[in-house]
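Per-record layout

source: Podospora australis
name: 60S ribosomal protein L36
length: 109
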Amino acid sequence: MGKKQETEKTGLAKGVNKGTKTTPIIAKKQRPSRTKGKSSARTTFVRSIVKEVAGLAPYERRVIELLRNGKDKRARKYSKRKLGTFGRAKAKVDELQRVIAESRRAGGH
C-alpha cells in the first residue's frame, strides 16, 4: 500500500481531509539498550589484529583439518561441542572455510 500525502486534518467529520487534528509523530531517538552487543569499529579492529598476531586456537586448527578432509558435518559437530550452540558453530565453520579459501588464494600466487 502506498503512503498517503501528509496533509493537515480539518477537524471536521466529512470532506477530503476529514478527521481530528493531531500532532505528527516524530522519530524517537534510539535507546542505548538497543545498541547493546553491537561491536564498535575499534573493537572489530583490535580483534582482527589479535587474531592476526595470535593465530588460530587449537580447536580451530582441528576444524580446518576436518574441513580439508571433507568432513564438514563432523567439523560442525565438533565446533558445536566447543562453542555451545549450533548457530555459533555454523558461523565459525563458515569463517574457517573463508580462511582456507584465502590461504589457497595466497598460496596460488
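summary: The chain has a mean pLDDT of 89. The longest helix spans residues 86-108.
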